[in-house]
Amino acid sequence: MKIGRIVLFIFSVILLLATMCALFPQEGVHCFNATLRFPSLEKVLTGHSKTNCDTFRETNKAGKLPEMGKDTASIAAFSDSIMQTADSAELQTVADTMKCLGNQQILNDSFLSLPENQLDYFDKFFASAENARTEGRTVRVLHYGDSQIELDRISSVLREYFQGIFGGMGPGLLPLSQTVPTYAVTQRLTGDFTGYVAYGEGKRDSSHNYGIMGKRFHITDSVTFTALGNETNPNKHVRHFSDVKLLFKDYNGNFTATLSNDNYSGKIISDTIGLDMFEWNTGCPTNSMTLTLKGEADIYGIMLDGSYGVSVDNIPMRGSSGMVYTLIDSTQLRNSYFMTNVGLIIMQFGGNSVPSFCDTTSVKTFVNNVLRQIKYVQSITPQCRIMFVGPSDMSKNDGGEMVTYPLLPFAINCLRNTLVSNGVAYWDIYRMMGGRNSMAEWVETGLAGNDYIHFTNAGAEKVGKAIINSFSTLYEMYLSRKHFDSDRDALSSGNHNQTDSIFNYK
Description:
Blueprint: H1 3-23, E1 29-31, E2 34-36, H2 41-46, H3 52-62, H4 73-83, H5 88-108, E3 112-113, H6 123-135, E4 138-145, H7 155-166, E5 172-174, E6 185-190, E7 194-197, E8 215-219, E9 222-229, E10 241-250, E11 256-261, E12 264-269, E13 274-286, E14 288-294, E15 297-305, E16 309-316, H8 330-340, E17 342-348, H9 360-380, E18 385-389, E19 395-398, E20 401-404, H10 408-421, E21 425-427, H11 429-433, H12 438-444, H13 457-493, H14 500-503
Parallel strand pairs: 4-16, 4-17, 17-18, 18-21
Antiparallel strand pairs: 1-2, 3-21, 5-15, 6-9, 7-8, 8-15, 9-14, 10-13, 10-15, 11-12, 11-14, 19-20
């Protein structure tokens, strides 16, 4: 028997045991009157386990989170020993699989919970984003949230990451009138309009005609919109844009829009009534533009993008608990998601509801309402993956001491378990911060404000980078699976079929 096959057999046994270490429930499996337990992979490799608070304190001293997506030293050493004996095809398969194993353990120790542990949960989005360049199109990531994401916080970190990998530029989706400023772009509006919103303070619309951002702006004559990108923004991809899109509803079939800047001018006239989208390509990146709109129409959003790649749209909804989607007409929302090519939806809500929790029943009611909103969106756009980012730790004054809201840990457990069991990924800020009473430490270290609720810019950046680490690990695993699939036929010809069930993570 070839030495490579012997090595692969030994490795397969070790991999099976390591997989059991990684996936076996920490609380064990109850069988009759006994509980079966299996040591975690971290404990096998290092002899101990680390708590979330330990991780927070260590990373906070260094000023950054540890890099994700890297193999542990033990895994790397074992992989090196394999490489000394296997032939080239076997070597690449073993290396890719060891990398997958290391990434899976890192993911298990991170703050992301996936439905049924589907490690390929975001693969369709990754594939679509990869193909965006060759297909000359933009894939949208919609980041909805409450005031925690205002000013483009957290969204900006995600945008820079995705655009750095897949291409793309610009700040993405903007409302016609911005009530809360953003670091990404300065915008101005002249002319008359009437605004309607599905959340917070403002006029409501009985016809549920709100649009993709949960708001619309009705114009009847002429308005002029200007946007100027922030050249000093540390995120380089957001500063410029080359493509502009306008999502609107024309009432009379004669709505006109003219885009202009120092080097470009283009006018488009609508000839249909109803939902439509205009698109301009300025031919080269720019950081400024003026859009003149004439006629009667509802404006749902203006998109400042690149000609291909990924756009991350910051959609803050101050005061909202996320109960907004069912208030938007389903046909309009479905068509808007389709026309703008939405590939991933991130919902970040919960903080506005935490202070109102009075008992476990109120928590369960909130969780069920969140699930109803998500199921509504899933029915509208089943091709999109959804990730829910839960509430952070929040503190209240208890006898002069700032402590975690009593029902917050219970609420987070309910949210995570309910959403994951219903096919939704859950990312846990509370656990990432360090758990109970961690907000006080974040305030002391300048990562959160004195209201013990909102992050500072530094804290928001830390959260954004932690979310990126989860996506980075999953993307590395996606690339490893792609590589393995391309080599599988060659390995099969060498009679390595017996390893397929172990190496295939799909």
